[in-house]
């Protein structure tokens, strides 16, 4: 063990907490049973078998209210692995559940035996026929697929609110639809073909001309049974009519029996049945979608009504007017959404009954949109709208930012309302549909039912399609609360089926939640046909046991998860998973959701239990050390949970008093540290030029093993030499701004590109060239934005430097009279925002007077209009940093690049590089994993320039792509330098 390795005990939760009834039992502390682990390791290899108790716990939770601990988690890479897993399951009597994003709301991605992660190695999209079709792998998120399709003016039909995180495989397996899909744009209607693996291991590609012949050869019994079921259904006119009627409104409860009516051959039938089958019929390895036109002309309005029923009554008028979306949000939803950044704060005071409709029209051109707006105006003129807050306009707008804000509030329904639930309560999201003409009546009945059972109303939904969502919060650890929930569900199902002949699941699929009520909706005949279909396709019951079909009338009460309180910053988390695709460590160790899930399991355990100890042993590296701390999770989370901040706090708790004192000394004497680092880099550069990188790699590797990997950096070949000791000369007289070269740019040399100036010289030259000269203070050495210590949780050192630099900046800028321009986006973020909590009250007052400007913004907004571009490169690819995302500076990066290059590309897979200051030097595997997808995309073609605006991120991308990245300001200086 390294000399200064932190003790896991430092992160042990407080003592004296009461163990939860659903805690992982102590006998499971060793993880996967040895025999199962050995068998699967021999089959797949150790890297594809996750077996530690921490692995099992982090996969046990998803966005649903259920929690089931798998016996083992497998991470297959290809169809051979999938077939091997299914063969093993058949031969050993095991059950298999496939899981992708874990955003499903009803427990259908949870298993109690073998759980298979089909997200990590299953991403990718291929555009076909100019965008008319797209071949998509199941682990690809809907947002990622649409980003690629947007370049072709196309989009997928399904548009769930969780598009940022949910995957195409999950969308198809659940027939999830969303705001605009209804019954005509969902997966069932827009999937052209599927490739899937049946439980037997047979692979079927429904697009193949001889697919039925191949299936008949491989599965003759299955083909016969499917055709027999088809004939039986078609012979029953009453049943046929019933099936057709059930799908006139949105319905994802049970299997798509209309597949037997729509398909003429076994392969056709299977193509239909796979959609919405929730992983119970096979593994979908590839989907070909028929895409839809992306109408870019948009007009939207958020219209406010005095009551839920008044809003519901207005829906038919907008449907008839041609609205693509009519979304409903009740008062509780609107008030809770103020937690979402950008939502007007005055919504918090909306009257109790207030309800809003988000109405949107989309058109291919200006004239068509104008026609929609005229029709909409006629509808609005006949409505009794209210203006309960100053921010309410009740007007249609084409402003993209305003429209985006409306949708942000709507899509945050589950997370915003769920995040404001009482601490310690479990959240259940219900979803049903009624004929749209009866929406108003259904709203009224639902409110009455919720009140009768003691649940607060929180209703939203796709009103255009008669599809409502509502939330229930209760304490799963209390028997009385569970019984109250059970009574509500019985009454709710009776209401929807008997009074409205509705769908108990409109788009969230049956899962475990509605399985006991399937027969209540479909009747005995149809339900038994579903059981027989399952028997025909999966006779051994290998796939997803107890999902969709379960004869236990109380199955929906089994496995309900408790939500123990954790650290305040993370306590509102509802485990939705929206944060996961943005996380740099997603494919390496854990995600933000999983870090919180693991912490909650620690809280469920009695202090000192073997499970708690096992979780703590893994948590240090898997959660704390490999968190980049970039807080992109906060940007993705609708309620702004910053798991990165929690990990930094945990780092602080792991420090010994001695480590805190040493860190404080480095802050106090940072001028010496800075100079020493620069000299060390120069010496290292000299060594590697003569002896290569192996010597330094070996030395640093040994030192890290002896001391601690999280304290000593590892030598990487991409590390540049030391920066020039002297900064370019400038004058305070006549300066338009104070230029603060970040310490990272004062320590690390820039890229050695022929003809290019160093970054500091570039900023000075550009500013002078534009008539807005900048001044570099003589005493910047020894100051820093404090991110070095903030990212590692050294609070004392962080406070020392934060206060020093703010006091210095106050003096440099003449009390805030001049802007402070910072040339590294992470340092801009640190100085503008992250230092504030560590300042004294007096220095907070000084900070409020400062204008801190990122160099990208300075160049794009202040300099570029006064510059002349003399030369442009052909193409440039950009790496927007996570700090730019936080600051909102990505547009400025693109603006600068577009002035320098004929073609500018931002990779669809661009994300945080995970270098995180020096974290990429401490854990290079984090950057390697974080950049893998972006680097693969970048390297599909050559570019003339590789641009970013943060030196360490550039180093990380150099390592990932093999190409030399440099600041966009260096490129701009070259492009605007007069030709001599």
Could you give a quick summary of the protein structure above?
This protein has 980 residues and is α/β, with parallel strands linked by helices. The chain contains 39 helices and 25 strands.
Structural features, described:
With 980 residues, this protein is an alpha/beta fold. The relative contact order is 0.09. The mean pLDDT is 95. The N and C termini lie far apart (61 Å). Helix 20 runs antiparallel to helix 21 (610-625), helix 24 packs across helix 25 and helix 35 packs parallel to helix 39. The strands form six sheets. A six-stranded antiparallel sheet has the order 12-14-13-16-17-15, with helices on both faces. It is globular, with a radius of gyration of 29 Å. Helix content is 43%, strand content 12%.
List keywords for this structure.
6-stranded antiparallel β-sheet, 25 strands, 43% helix, 5-stranded antiparallel β-sheet, 980 residues, alpha/beta, globular
